[in-house]
Amino acid sequence: MAMSLIADDVVADVIDSHSRTPGALLPILHGVQDALGYIPREAAIRIADALNISRAEVHGVITYYHYFRSEPPARHLVQVCRAEACQSVGAEALIGHVRERLGCAKQAQSADGRFSVEPVYCLGLCASGPALTIDEHLHARMTQEKFERLASRMEEQP
Ligand code: FES
Fold it and tell me: Which phi and psi (to 5°) does residue 142 adopt?
């Protein structure tokens, strides 16, 4: 599916503002994702053409960094820390529970597109793990019971 005209303009502006900067690929990818929430396939093609690099190179960078998304984000994003300090206090069991609870056990996003669960590697709450974020709000010392309350609250939202 082609990008909307607005998204088209956004991508053109972002490319324009960085295209003469050395190492422009990462700032352009960040700019597009910040503006659109993800990097559409058509945008990746246009970026490759503008920077005169291969589409495979752009795709490789998008898939290498967990941060970049090539699909529209879900309505609610849950990021669970899997770094060492959180792992030592149960992060693996927690992420398994979170995925299961939100219908993301087999894929990153729930089938209805409402929830997305992603691993991250340190949220700066190492002494208070396991840690996670829900829509960019930090939550420390997470338990399955605490998460259940937060999940119910998310489900009540449209
Ligand atoms: S290790 Fe999880 S917040 Fe730092």
Answer: -75, 140
pLDDT score for 153: 94
Q: Which atom of ligand 1 is nearest to the CA of 125?
A: 3
**How many angstroms is it from 137 CA to the middle of ligand 1?**
15
Q: What parts of the chain have a pLDDT lower than 70?
A: 1-2
Strand-pairing partners, residue 79, are: 118, 133
Phi-psi region of 142 (alpha: psi -120 to 50; beta: other; left: phi over 0): beta
* Probe target for ligand 1 pocket from 95, 125, 139, with the most ligand atoms within 8 Å of CB: 125
Q: What is the pLDDT of residues 9-35, one digit of tens each?
A: 899 999 999 978 889 999 999 999 999
Note the pTM of the prediction, 2 decimals: 0.72
Which strands, in side-by-side order, build the sheet including 115-120?
115-120, 76-81, 132-134, 137-139
Residue ranges around ligand 1 (CB below 6 Å)? 81, 83-86, 122-126, 129, 131
Query: Angle 41-51/25-36 helices, nearest 10 degrees?
Result: 150
